[in-house]
Amino acid sequence: MRGLAAFFIAALTATSALLFQGAGSKRLFITGEDAGYLEPSSCAPCHRGIYESYRGAGMGRSFYRPTPENTVEDYSRNNTYYHEASGQYYTMVQRSGRYYQRRHQLGPDGRETNVVEKEIQFVLRSGAHARTYLHKTPDG
């Protein structure tokens, strides 16, 4: 049993070294505020066939950063949804190349109140049926 455990620890260590150092000691992982997020394109040099096949599938398009090239939403028209049960408006906004989801309600005077706006750092799901937008909290 000890030999099996040692084998798995050695295999995990070797796999981690390959994933995080890559060929020619090129670092494939991301540091800083995006630590832990590995760009899918970093897998392509060693796994080209799998990479090409997977990126065409819905699952392969299910987690990404929004960019002008991959954004299908229209952030200037038809970008507001009203949730009648809660009296909340949701608006998608694009400013200076960044994407935001904004929520507000209308007060008794008709002015916006309870405004919350968060930058969209990641999109979750492919959009075949729906998408969810994620933002980072101050603690990452």
Characterise this structure:
The chain has two domains: 2-56, no CATH class; 80-134, no CATH class. The chain is 21% helix and 26% strand. It has two helices and seven strands. It has helices at residues 2-21, 48-56, and strands at residues 63-64, 80-83, 88-95, 98-106, 112-119, 122-124, 132-134. The protein has a four-stranded antiparallel β-sheet with strand order 2-3-4-5, with no helix packed on it. A three-stranded antiparallel β-sheet has the order 1-6-7, with no helix packed on it. The two termini are 39 Å apart.
Summarize the structure.
With 140 residues, the protein is an alpha+beta fold. The chain contains two helices and seven strands. A four-stranded antiparallel beta sheet has the order 2-3-4-5, with no helix packed on it. Strands 1-6-7 form a three-stranded antiparallel beta sheet, with no helix packed on it.
Distance between the termini: 39 Å
Helical content (DSSP H or I, runs of 4+): 10-25%
Largest sheet: 4 strands, antiparallel
Number of strands: 7
Beta-strand residue fraction: 25-35%
Low-confidence stretches: 1-29
The geometry reads as: elongated
Number of structural units classed as domains = 2
Radius of gyration: 21 Å
Order of helices and strands, N to C? Answer: HHEEEEEEE
- The computed structural class is alpha+beta
Mean pLDDT: 75
| Total of helices | 2
Enumerate the strands of the largest sheet in spatial order, edge to edge or round the barrel: 2-3-4-5
Question: How would the blueprint of this fold be written?
Answer:
Layout: H1 2-21, H2 48-56, E1 63-64, E2 80-83, E3 88-95, E4 98-106, E5 112-119, E6 122-124, E7 132-134
Antiparallel strand pairs: 1-6, 2-3, 3-4, 4-5, 6-7
